[in-house]
Design brief:
Order of helices and strands of chain A: EHEEEHEHEEE
Strand content of chain A: 35-45%
Structural class of chain A: alpha+beta
Largest interface: A-B, 51 and 51 residues
Strand order of the largest sheet of chain A: 2-3-4-1-5-8-7-6
Radius of gyration of chain A: 15 Å
Oligomer: homodimer
Distance between the termini of chain A: 24 Å
Helix content of chain A: 10-25%
Number of helices of chain A: 3
Chain lengths: 138, 138
């Protein structure tokens, strides 16, 4: 079975304690700040550098999944790879025995279909696929 | 001070327990396998998807830095951002108070100058800069 090819690293997600301080630091690192999105359980700052995106998450609730992640570990939370056909990729991965968190794609922060694969299947890395249409970069 | 811009996510580094199993899994994920490099303390499998690279490290020595990382945490170990001028970037970051692991670049796995920034300065993310010349992608 020929896998659906990864066409790029779309983004990494990072869990931070203090979003405002982190926004300042990541701008100094040379990333371009694209704004903050507010959700019930988290605030997310979006950045990009070339075609790579960085998402900084500040959990609002210490008992949420991200809140626990911050307490126990912090730092890089997941990586997202760009593909052109997420449904075929998910079907193939399931057939190969990968443990899918989403069997059907959901809409992600960038407006594209996304799905997560369990870290147990990816050598302890929470892995996301993002379907980026051709011509939209990756 | 205008930061030296990040032009892309060059790679992520992942620490794994069993490199051969991980090579198989990451090929099934859709990444292209580029080979294994052998070093005294680690074996590294190189992959790419589009312009994004993935490096899987299997530590040989459980008491090495990577060995301890695997025991305590595992998974994504660092992210590397591509820049065009690493010396200026490092000088600026040092002036901004970032804690540099390398004040002078060293040559990385891909043959380009690289330098690491301490996770303390990057909200718990071990961060690498890679100087990728224009025209070599990022």
């Amino acid at each position: 079975m020929v896998p659906v090819p990864v066409v790029g690293i779309h983004h990494i997600g990072i869990v931070v304690e203090n979003l405002d301080e982190a926004i300042e630091a990541y701008q100094k690192l040379g990333l371009t700040f694209d704004g903050v999105k507010d959700f019930p359980h988290t605030r997310v700052a979006l950045f990009h550098g070339g075609e790579g995106h960085v998402e900084l998450f500040e959990p609002k609730d210490p008992e949420s999944d991200l809140g626990r992640y911050l307490r126990e570990r912090g730092g890089i939370h997941h990586v997202a790879y760009a593909v052109r056909d997420i449904r075929t990729a998910l079907a193939q991965l399931e057939q190969e025995g990968f443990e899918l968190i989403h069997r059907e794609p959901v809409i992600g922060l960038h407006g594209f279909p996304v799905a997560f694969i369990h870290p147990r299947s990816c050598h302890r890395v929470l892995t996301e696929l993002v379907e980026v249409p051709e011509g939209e970069g990756h």
